[in-house]
Amino acid sequence: MPDIRLRLLLDPDGHIGPGRAELLEGIAALGSISAAGRAMGMSYRRAWELVEEMNRIFGRPVAETQAGGRQGGGARLTDLGQLVVTRFRSAEAAARRAVAEEMAALQKEVRREG
Amino acid sequence: MPDIRLRLLLDPDGHIGPGRAELLEGIAALGSISAAGRAMGMSYRRAWELVEEMNRIFGRPVAETQAGGRQGGGARLTDLGQLVVTRFRSAEAAARRAVAEEMAALQKEVRREG
Question: What count of other Cβ atoms lies within 10 Å of the Cβ of residue B72?
Answer without folding.
Answer: 10
